Amino acid sequence: MSADLDKLPSRDLLAFQLFDWLDTGSGEERETLMAMIDATQRVAAEAFLPHYRQGDIEEPRLEADGVHVLPAIHQAMALYAQMGLFGASFPEELGGLGLSCTASLAIHAGFAAANVSTAGYPMLTAANARLIAAFGTPAQVDRFARPQIEGRWFGTMCLSEPQAGSSLGDIRTRAVADGEDELGGRYRLSGNKMWISAGDQNVSENIVHLVLAKIAQQDGGLPEGSKGISLFIVPKILPDGTRNDLAVAGLNHKMGFRGTANCLLNFGEGAGAVGWRVGGEGQGLAQMFMMMNEARISVGMGAAALAYRGYRQSLRYAQERLQGRAVGVRNGAPIPIFNHPDVRRMLLQQKAYAEGALALCLYCARLVDQGGEDAETLLALLTPVAKSWPSEFGLIANDLAIQVHGGYGYTRDFDVEQLWRDNRLNPIHEGTTGIQAIDLLGRKILLSDGRPLALLRDRIGDTAGRAMETAEWAPAAAALLDYWRHVEDVVAGLRALGGAEAYDDATLFLRAFGHGVLAWLWLDQVLHARGHADSAMESGVAFACRFFFESELPQADAWLRIVGQHGDLARTMPDEAFA
Amino acid sequence: MSADLDKLPSRDLLAFQLFDWLDTGSGEERETLMAMIDATQRVAAEAFLPHYRQGDIEEPRLEADGVHVLPAIHQAMALYAQMGLFGASFPEELGGLGLSCTASLAIHAGFAAANVSTAGYPMLTAANARLIAAFGTPAQVDRFARPQIEGRWFGTMCLSEPQAGSSLGDIRTRAVADGEDELGGRYRLSGNKMWISAGDQNVSENIVHLVLAKIAQQDGGLPEGSKGISLFIVPKILPDGTRNDLAVAGLNHKMGFRGTANCLLNFGEGAGAVGWRVGGEGQGLAQMFMMMNEARISVGMGAAALAYRGYRQSLRYAQERLQGRAVGVRNGAPIPIFNHPDVRRMLLQQKAYAEGALALCLYCARLVDQGGEDAETLLALLTPVAKSWPSEFGLIANDLAIQVHGGYGYTRDFDVEQLWRDNRLNPIHEGTTGIQAIDLLGRKILLSDGRPLALLRDRIGDTAGRAMETAEWAPAAAALLDYWRHVEDVVAGLRALGGAEAYDDATLFLRAFGHGVLAWLWLDQVLHARGHADSAMESGVAFACRFFFESELPQADAWLRIVGQHGDLARTMPDEAFA
């Protein structure tokens, strides 16, 4: 295998998770999918990977005619479009390839591992087109979704404003009704949008901005809160070929993830940017969040891919780098650092995090494909975990990848420092970890009817039941059930506590909940890996699973106990005592 | 207070830790020291802080005549020298200021918070001069230490080589005897040294390299292992004014800490670099490590200072940034994010880490000043903790500082991303965390006579005894004693296990040990903060201490249990299962 392909999720691992574990597709479909994965990974290795470092050094730059990105990104996008991948998971009648969500996410993982910044452009474009396909009129779909599915136009999501990051109810972008045409209700938009990834670039023929804004009331005021938010299609170039009234006000200079241009956009500095409403008035946030879930799983997969690549690169480094001797041995030649227990521990921990995160994201994609009420309910519960767990623990994995490299890992001669910087965005964008935590504990648990958690417990019970039938994994199954009883006790305590206080440790709860999910998924995988034809695969899954139960779950249990204590220190600490 | 001084350790906090807690100096000395801290912090704010970002952007560059650094670094060093600070902790008879180690470390904290890269130059210079002052002949001290104490010459430590990072026994730099002169035994050195911080610059008149090398034997071979290592003074400019035979072969391009030039040095490309031996043959490593302890505490303090600055900057940001509302509140104006419990938790955690790390380093410096066998033994035990704990947890604090800033924290418009990148070096240089762990568990505990840990337990028992007499802190005292009994049980188990296996989880042991030390130091501080004239100070210490006991120690207890299980997963995992 080439050294480059070695940085992408291995085909053996993907085959195990997709087929042996998640039972995706039938015989022939599997062959087709693996051929697709092979083909796309070659493109990822040849057209995305080589400019990984260059994209970090030569950031997008703002010139008089807009944002310019690396020529290598143009070439990568052209190849990506040629393969039809912008439409990977769209139905054939819309010009897509008709792949399942699981298959297209597995393909995305390869591109994200190769170059997470460049992979950001099609990821956002697909999310945009899917939203229009779901909620737009046939004319809107034809005009704005299809060119994105073909990869000729790219898309963005314009949510945040300088004064409204996480609190979208406070947005001030204004939409004034301006009649109606064949593309639907027409509006003139004005306002400033912040943190717009791919907000401008010189790659695609046009850019379709999906913009959250509030429709001005009769008195000229804007409705309060998030219920007044509507969604608008605002193309950079209007259907008549003229430029819409929107401008790039600036670029954000980020610590990492630099290949994806991140823009401050001003809409309507003149007569107002022309936009067409998608769906009903006031439906903007609900529609956006339905699609945001897809984006959140993609973010999680990006984080998983970065973690995986760091794992592979530090593994190879450890196998080649000679340094030191075994404890107690004074003479003889230096040995590969791979043989030092502490280095092996750092590698195993990375494996458990990275491959676990990959499994989590694919599991969620499988739920999308399965559909139906139960799968949707479970998906909604797991989405904040799929977004945040790979982001938080993938970052720790990348930190370990640096540490394995020692001083070399701190230099820009090796990729691991960039992986770490790139991954640091993931706990922030598309909803910070704190926001995910409130979503999980609030909407999905305390404010729900209890069904989401009950559904999850059923699946965990099922896995544990099967593990109980084996001598080897029965103790882990018992530990898993104990852990989830603990989770339920903590939830019951928080429910009884009620009020705002219940959310004091929401973030730690999310973390502990995520570890419980990962322990379950590792145990479930291990049951499917037993007797695998590839004994190294069986063994790798088994060791990662045992590591998770021996070294991770006991820590998570401590987190649960802390949450269960309902401590109020941070909230009650006097303001002046922080000084 | 100016916004700039607000980024440096607050005088109230330093006064509390230095005087109320550590009982440093008497009344008048305290006033003098505080005046000194005020004066040096002004210099730090005016001459070190302003080029913090610039030093990151404009890295040192290698030109034909050597390495060039920012003009601002020249100016900062000139001011630093004018104040006599290169000689801060040297005795007056050597031209120093005669400050205690504690005082000079408190002063260093201000410079490190302002600009950790620029502060690296004098930090290394002082460590170099102290080594020569301790082991050199009077002629060597006059010739090579005094100009450094005056700040005219700078110093370096040349240990690592491309093939020998952590395993110094494998170094290949060769020293061939070349007679003797008034400066001692003279040698010709040849070899390559890697990772040399401040290895070249255009600031000081001369550079004194302290070089570890092996003296060639009669047969031309080099002695094996670390016992054959000697220490040599190798100046860039020889006493006769000619250039010594050494060259900068390259600069390392780091992720952070960029203001400190990091060089690959080639010694003896021609007739051999002239060097004078310091101390006896084969004493090199022992001498170096005596001084390395000082460098390790300084590294810890640098990490603590970065953590502290991130805490302060994210605190100020949180107080000013308006976003969202309290849970359950839908209307009204956005509130400062400082009022959100999750943000307050991230701030309190930073405070507990940053101020705890500062306390740990000052405590160790106080042991240096106290001297005597007990203090030295305890210092040796705590040094790996003082190096690693602030490095590991200060980095987590900086990660939280980014998260408090949200998307803004990921841009280079705010300092927190640079603080995080800068701090990432600290778990690597001057001995990685893994190396510190083996030092703690091996040399300081399992291979010692047990006295170091017994001494520590005495001090902990003393603190707990005093806490037991208070109603408020008796439960924490009991938890602390429980925790340390657990540590001792784990140590006994590892001792019984014996062999290399005992070190499998040395890194996790170090982490848990460090948390136990920090819990102790927080409890000890809280007892000295009771009834403090400044009620905000008393309250701040109390909340940080309670946080540490409620939220940190339970996690550390889980780490101890994991270590105590003597798991062998990483060691026994088949090599091919990592793939």
From TrEMBL, chains A, B:
It holds the Pfam family Acyl-CoA_dh_N. It comes from the Bacteria. Residues 157-267 form the Acyl-CoA oxidase/dehydrogenase middle domain. GO terms for molecular function: flavin adenine dinucleotide binding; oxidoreductase activity, acting on the CH-CH group of donors. Residues 460-571 form the Acetyl-CoA dehydrogenase-like C-terminal domain. Signal peptide: none annotated. SUPFAM superfamilies: Acyl-CoA dehydrogenase C-terminal domain-like (SSF47203), Acyl-CoA dehydrogenase NM domain-like (SSF56645). InterPro entries: Acyl-CoA_dh-like_C_dom, Acyl-CoA_Oxase/DH_mid-dom, Acyl-CoA_Oxase/DH_mid-dom_sf, AcylCo_DH-like_C, AcylCo_DH/oxidase_C, AcylCoA_DH/ox_N, AcylCoA_DH/ox_N_sf, AcylCoA_DH/oxidase_NM_dom_sf. The keyword Transmembrane helix does not apply. Residues 282-438 form the Acyl-CoA dehydrogenase/oxidase C-terminal domain. Its cofactor is FAD. Keywords: FAD, Flavoprotein, Oxidoreductase. Residues 35-151 form the Acyl-CoA dehydrogenase/oxidase N-terminal domain. Belongs to the acyl-CoA dehydrogenase family. This is Acyl-CoA dehydrogenase domain-containing protein.
